Amino acid sequence: MQNDPDVLILGGGVIGLACAHYLLQAGRSVRIIERGQAGAATSHGNCGTITPSHAPPLAAPGTVLKALKWMATPDAPLYVKPRPDPVLAYWLLRFAARCNHRDWRQAGLAKAALLHQSRALIEELVQRFELDCEFQASGVRYIYRDMGEFERACRELPALAEFGIATRVINSVELARDEPALRPGMAGAIEYPGDAHLRPDRYSAELARQVREQGGVIEEGVEVTGFITEPGRLIGVKTGDGPRRGRDVIAAFGPWSPTMLRQLGLKIPIQPGKGYSITYSRPTLAPRMPIVLKERSVCVTAWGSGYRLGSTMEFSGYDDSLNRRRLDALERAANEYLLEPVGPVKQEEWFGWRPMTWDDLPILGAVPGWKNLWLATGHGMLGVTLSAGTGQLLADLICGRNSAVDPQPYRADRF
Ligand SMILES: Cc1cc2nc3c(=O)[nH]c(=O)nc-3n(C[C@H](O)[C@H](O)[C@H](O)COP(=O)(O)OP(=O)(O)OC[C@H]3O[C@@H](n4cnc5c(N)ncnc54)[C@H](O)[C@@H]3O)c2cc1C
What we know:
By secondary structure, the chain is α/β, with parallel strands linked by helices. The chain folds into two domains: 158 residues, FAD/NAD(P)-binding domain (3-Layer(bba) Sandwich), CATH 3.50.50; 199 residues, D-Amino Acid Oxidase, Chain A, domain 2. 31% of the residues lie in helices and 25% in strands. It is built from ten helices and 20 strands. The strands form four sheets. Strands 4, 5, 6, 7, 14, 15, 16, 17 and 18 form a nine-stranded mixed sheet that branches. A six-stranded mixed sheet has the order 9-2-1-13-20-19, covered by helices on one side. It is globular, with a radius of gyration of 21 Å. It starts with 6 loop residues before the first strand and ends in a 17-residue tail after the last helix. Bound molecules: flavin-adenine dinucleotide. The site of flavin-adenine dinucleotide has 40 residues, from helix 1, strand 2, strand 14 and strand 18.
């Protein structure tokens, strides 16, 4: 193939696209290989919230107990499909072993550093390159119906200060006045004013436009089927359309990373964490900013162009069925909190697989033993939020520049 790029990027989700953008900004040529359409997989139907407030890791003291309780409830937000799967069992054990204060704090600090930087970079990116993606520095609110849950969450707020997360507690009276979309009788809310939101499909489309306008190549409908190697070096990849080469290669396969990279003998500790969303036309009485219906773990995001309910974390392997019970649970939850829980026209029912690591940190950086292979994957529940920070960090690492965020906690050889 003529014109081999400086960097070949495998996977055109929000992560591959953001890496391409920042590498182009650094003067490198790039080519993205995407088997479908750029941004059309996990990066498509997610909730679009930009949330440094999610720095506290999932693996926290008490999570295992909560998860066990949820497993007895068929439509709970967390579900592990019972089946003999030693890889999943090992992943869950490693996750459970991290449910202690020391690991929680350490991972939280590492997550917070990249989340805050990425949140700032996204706003700058959207403004400077005029990305038309309905970005709003809106903040996000957690809504509580249960007074006990609300009071418990308020007591835990001081722990968030160490992660640099600003919060505002809103009592029931103020909340009723300030958010007319809610049913009466909510216990209260916690607002995270540093959060934001955007329309994720538009964000990916605009990133792709930017990449192309800066001279990057995005090949869609081209599947990576294998790797071309020499000892310690990746020469390129095999595709249905012939080989593709690059001086450096970034693997940004998202949830498909373990299966693809197994061919290189790499064990990538990612499990697909399945989530669902339903998109509607916008209801008349939509929440003023994204809200999380806390007791049900459902996220509600409204844009000028639409409205989405999204949630659930299902560990059922790469099961690609749409589970009706889980989709219905989204609407039931919304109905408990909102006066107009769904929009007039249902536009899309969707699922995606979050690329989940057991320490809740992405895997970013050089692959040990390979001179020119880089990983940008494992972004879990936060790939949109972490996109710009990831792109900037990979560009810094590949160009041999110092990065604003310490890359150590995300290195590929930590497992
Ligand atoms: C219900 C739900 C809600 C979410 N809400 C949020 C949110 O509010 N905020 C947030 O920050 N994050 C959210 N997320 C997480 C976010 O969607 C992901 O972390 C993010 O999209 C991952 O991006 P990615 O580029 O790594 O993966 P993907 O978008 O899946 O990109 C990987 C790409 O690789 C391609 N690919 C795979 N194999 C091959 C191959 N062999 N050859 C060529 N191409 C290949 C795929 O087609 C795909 O396009 C949510 C996720 C879910 C499921």
